[in-house]
Amino acid sequence: MSEKKIGVFICHCGSNIAGVVDIEKVLEAIRELPNVEVTEDYKYVCSKPGQQILKDHIKSSRLDGIVIAACSPRMHEPTFRQAMREAGLNPYLLEIANIREHDSWIHSDDPEAATEKAIDLVRMAIARARLLVPLDEPEVTIKKSTLIIGAGIAGISAALDLANAGFKVHLVEREPSIGGKMARWDKTFPTLDCSSCILTPRMAEVGAHPNIDLITLAEVESVDGFVGNFKVKIRQSPRYVDLETCTSCGDCSEICPVDIPAAFEAQLSYRKAIYIPFAQAVPSAYLLDMDNCLGVDAVRCGKCKDKCEAGAINYDDKEKIIEIEVGTIIVSTGFELFDATKKPEYGYGEFSNVVNIGEVERMLSSAGPTQGHIVRPSDLAKPKKIVYVQCVGSRDELTNKYCSRVCCMTAIKQARMIRDKTGIAVYIFYIDLRTFGKGYEEFYESTAKAGVTFIRGRVGEIFQDDETQSLIVRGEDTLLGKPIQLTGVDLVVLSTGVVAPDSTKKVAHALNLSVSPDGFLLEAHPKLRPVDSFNDGIFVAGMAQGPKDIPDTVAQAKAAASGAMALMGKGKINVDPYFSVVNEDKCAGCQVCISVCPYNAISLNERGHAEINPALCKGCGTCTSTCASGAIASQHYTDGQIAAMITEYLAAREESS
């Protein structure tokens, strides 16, 4: 230990650190500590000149340990590691003392205390740096294929980018057709382009692409393995109609005697037990809803099979388990609309003329249940007065605190279309209008000029006149500072926010992904790694990561595809050596570590001892802390290193007292 030469580099971070912490006092306090060979400060150590200073000292002073006092290691740890590599020093002989987020930012009102804390943090970092040892990064081979979970616009975009680049794509969708929610939407804001006209050519391209294996009516059951070598088990429900044989003639559906509400049409019309979700569905084949079928034998029904000249219907179709191996995974599981029955004051589910924005989208579509006409569900009459209520299930302490981003623009778009088509009086109650995208503010202003009335304030409650079935909307106009009541309202549209679907939780469990408090998948870093997960080789895209509009969804899908390509294009990658190791001489083979490992990284070898897969292990330390034999140690975060930091802190406290 006495031979170790440690260099300490303190970053000013402009005035983020130096404006609070006395840098010179920190340097004075650590200069004479054992093993400290070099002390240096610079305005921006992460900058190119700052990195050069670091590299020059490593070479000239033959440093074999580095401490950098700067910002969070999440920001620039890779930057400093690369600089160390370029200087010929093992990159894992680095310790970062976070004196910005953990010190100057939170103690800005007490510079003296912040300086003392910075000294403590740097001393503790030096204590650990004395015990750091060089580590090697294991090399992993990557298979050149990708699994994409969810085939909405995000999954479709990512699949086509990867497939066109020459990679094999397995695209898994739980619905009978790809397209997601965008396939149900009529127009897109702010240009009012036809949603289907944009989407369906891409859907057809997916269906015909030789590099895309499309698996519908399926969900991911389990995922094992690690980056570059994932083993995936997919459970596919029976379709009861052969995809290759079906000609989509529709004869089977015409003869089917069953009528049930159509989910694709937001329950506003009916479909048969054997059906195709919509005209442009991909795959373009019918499927049989066996839960609502009258019976598959000739005595009870069997009419669809008798009518099918192609012989495509197979009542004996079974559930399948499909197993594949892929190098990377992209999760694009989409969203669901908030269930407005959770806000009973608005009468959704109680009053038939209270609907949500998804139902209005299907009304506005010329291919929808009302052929593009807005009607009152109670009697199919044309409404004369429509009221929109914003932020239903969003920005609400009782439901979801986050903003769903797309609700304001969806309501404005629908109101504009209704106003332009029919001249119906449309009112929009809002808290704040969030028109955040390119051309969105201009679209809002032109909509207001077109005659849509915007009222700033929350709606408190909605009642129904049972005689006329018209609605009474009570709220507040916060601009005028007084209550407001609208009577004779024919239709209330709730701008329901977006929530993560239940399938997101299932996928997160299968892939060991983190979920943020809002229920969406958590990215590795909101600014620097917005499409990466914490698991190497797994990416998130679209609304699986959080609320966003179509342009942002497509952009994020392309970013995820790019990340997957970058990994697969290398063929091999190095994995961070933050994994635990087993001392077999101490291991009793009790398997407790296997039961507690959250990453399924531990198994028993042929000798009956625990064995850890370095590519799966994330070095969380759960196994280390539960091993009764003390047979497992975490590389790079050893008990000795942590104990040294604690000892150094206590010694510093004793000196100061």
> Which fold name corresponds to the CATH topology of the largest domain?
FAD/NAD(P)-binding domain
The count of DSSP E runs of length 2 or more, i.e. the number of strands, is 34
At CATH level 2, the architecture of the largest domain is 3-Layer(bba) Sandwich
How much is the radius of gyration in Å? 30 Å
What proportion of the residues form beta strands (DSSP E)?
A: 15-25%
Oligomer status: single chain
Strand order of the largest sheet: 10-7-6-18-29
Q: Give the integer mean of the pLDDT values.
A: 95
Give the % helix.
25-40%
Which CATH C-level class of the largest domain is it?
Answer: Alpha Beta
- Which superfamily, in CATH terms, is the homologous superfamily of the largest domain? FAD/NAD(P)-binding domain
Low-confidence runs of at least 5 consecutive residues: none
What can be said about the biggest beta sheet? 5 strands, parallel
Q: Can you count the helices?
A: 17
Domain module tally: 5
Give the class from helix and strand content and strand pairing: alpha/beta
State the separation between the terminal residues, measured CA to CA.
Answer: 28 Å
Overall 3D shape: globular
